[in-house]
Amino acid sequence: MENINTFDDLFWYYLEFYNVSESTRKDLISRYKNHIKGIVGKYRLDKLTFALLQSELDIYIRETAPYYKGWTRIIQNIKEIFTWAYTRRIISKTTKDLIFDMHLPRKVEYIGSKREVEPVRFYDEFQLKTIMSLISDYSMATGARDGYQRMTFSIYIELMILLGTRPSEALAIHWTDVDFESNIITISKTVSNDGASIGPTKTRTTRKISLNQTMINKLKTFKEYQQSAFNEFEIDTDPIFIFTNLKNILQGSDKPWYKYKNMKDTWFRICHKSNFPYLNGLHCFRHTHATLQLKNHGDYHFIAQRLGHKNVSETIDTYAHLMETKRLELDLVFDQYINNLSNQL
Predict the structure, then answer these.
(1) Where are the domains of the chain?
(2) Which of 41, 217, 222, 304 is a Cys-bridge partner for 309, taking CB atoms 3.0 to 4.6 Å apart?
(3) Percent of the chain having pLDDT more than 70?
(4) CB–CB of 4/13 below 8 Å?
């Protein structure tokens, strides 16, 4: 083991064993460079005390970024690193325990919580019908030279709404992930945030989701259309990804998939041109899927599994605003049931 004296030494050593997706790794590195390092990076591990850590945290937050909403996550990261270091016998139990009372200054707790509880943004049923019309019109535009890209985008949005995947998970789906006999699609990969690589999903899990026959038929048709495009441009390989970036292949790129930014920018242009609400990216389609699922049957365990959440509590926390609505609906149904029984007496 290398000489680990400061928290900075510990962080970079910890990163060697941080077994997560590439995008999650980059997010942690960004949080460390932008915030964590400024709080604790320079201190020797054997000189740390709770008073010192809490003081540095308070001062850094108030003077540097009091309105940053990710402070709770940053404290969690610091605690996880200390806990890991203890399991590796890098630090003592005394050193590990000193960080577990770290907390946000009261004012920042208020600011942070006020921003973080903002409800997720999603489209309602009426807007969803408009979306299906918009992407259909976009894909069928006459005279468009980018017909392949338009058709690909249309299928991408429709499949994402149906599956509830994270946007970058949908971009990483292979044709071999689709079982056309059983109408099952496997979600096991994701495109990194910068589009540079393919890695495991955010929670490093694989899940299988059923597809309706209509979507299966559309995928079969699109696969034939995609193959004809490959033949037209004399590409002598079969497409691997459902959403294969034909332009990248023709330019000799070794990354035949679309970046998230490509799809997000396309959706922004469609919304802007049609004067339709743009809800800050494509993750809103995942929230739309979850919201409709909850309104229809409200089974959080089923939805957590379908969305690929780490546990059901994550699902409940994310969509807590819908739980109250669902509870009120169930109360009304139960009240009506009791009233009907009373009337029969």
Answers:
(1) 7-116, 125-304
(2) 304
(3) 82
(4) yes
| 197-208 pLDDT per residue, tens | 899 998 888 999
Q: Give the separation between CA 319 and CA 57, rounded to whole angstroms.
A: 31
CATH class of 7-116: mainly alpha
Strands (E), the chain: 178-179, 184-187, 189-191, 198-200, 207-210
Q: How far apart are CA 271 and CA 277, in angstroms?
A: 6
Total-model pTM: 0.66
CATH superfamily of 125-304: Intergrase catalytic core (1.10.443.10)
If pLDDT is split at 50, 70 and 90, which confidence band does 343 have?
Answer: low
Q: Is the pLDDT of residue 229 over 80?
A: yes
How high does pLDDT run on average in the chain?
Answer: 83
Q: Is the C-alpha dihedral spanning 110, 115, 120, 123 positive or negative?
A: positive
Neighbours of 323 (CB within 10 A): 15
Per-residue 3-state assignment (H helix, E strand, C coil) for 104-148: CCHHHHHHHHHHHCCCCCCCCHHHHHHHHHHHHHHHCCCCCCCHH
Q: What is the dihedral of CA 188, 190, 292, 114, to 10 degrees?
A: 130
pLDDT per position as a tens digit, 101-114: 666 665 444 344 44
Encoded tokens for 112 = 């942070």
Mean pLDDT score, 72-98: 82
User: Residue 260 in contact with residue 171, Cβ under 8 Å?
Assistant: yes
